[in-house]
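Lab notes, practical 5.
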Amino acid sequence: MKKLLLAAALLAAPVLAQDAEPKGEPSPGEIVAAAPASEWVTIAPQDLLVMTLAPDRDGHERRVVIQLMPPPFSQPWVANIRTLAHDHWYDGNAITRVQDNYVAQWGDPNGDDKAKARTLPEGLGPTSVGEYETKIDGPIERALQARLKAGEESLSDAFAKRGADKVLAIKRAIPRDPYSDETLDFKGWPVAVDRQSQTAWPIHCYAMVGVGRGYAPDAGSGAELYAVIGQAPRHLDRNIALVGRVIEGIENLSSLPRGTGPLGVYEDPAQQVPIASIRLASELPADQQPHFEYLSTEGATFAKYVDARANRRDPFFIVPAGGVDICNVPVPVRRVP
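Output from the prediction step:
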């Protein structure tokens, strides 16, 4: 009987070995999960907007958390948004437009009717189209050099591990961008660069939040906002102010019914999604404040993460791509107690 059991075990062993998950290099998610605590950066409560929508048809709460853009980008609009949130001006507004594979937009439903439009609070600052870009300063230049160095090191590491004859000729961790000279992640945000004008600007990736406006020179105040819910509309870069990104609850915007009017506008006001409130997290009661961290884009883990997104070597993949669009390298963000 013991011999029969032993024989059965021996016969089963190769099958178990075949069924075992193949081993390979870590996936991007595994790299992020292994990041040390020192490489996670706290997002300050005053840099978070908490938007609470009316409950869905089943009575479930819908909340969207937006991280505001840091200096030096889009600061006139960000300052206005803080003022609007502090004055509770957004409360009672609505999502008025949802265009498939494009944006979900919210603001005053009567904004186009001067007789019915809500009065904006005092203290809003002026904005201009010239502020869509910012001059490259020392910190941005240093970040560019660090990104280039990281790309060269990842290429060198790939050749050392796999052999020159088996590695795609990757020039940089993130290759040249069709919309700009270079791209990089600066302080956790996707940014593009023009070397001739020595300017930089934030990029329209999925879940980024921008400012609605009319025809230039109107640059918008921040009273009307939108979130990208489709493929990155990079043609909007430098044409509209970007002020932040949704870091939690994007599904509460991307899953909304599409508007049937031009550009996805809800033709029937009953279709609009009411906004119960928009608050700065720092102004919420302490027990209601959400807390988040993002993975530092200057750390060693992020460099490995970018390389892994550009060259998937985990078991599922057959051919590494040899490059990656910056919008396909979302900066990891996590909620913390």
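Observations recorded by the TA: The mean pLDDT is 86. The longest helix spans residues 138-162.
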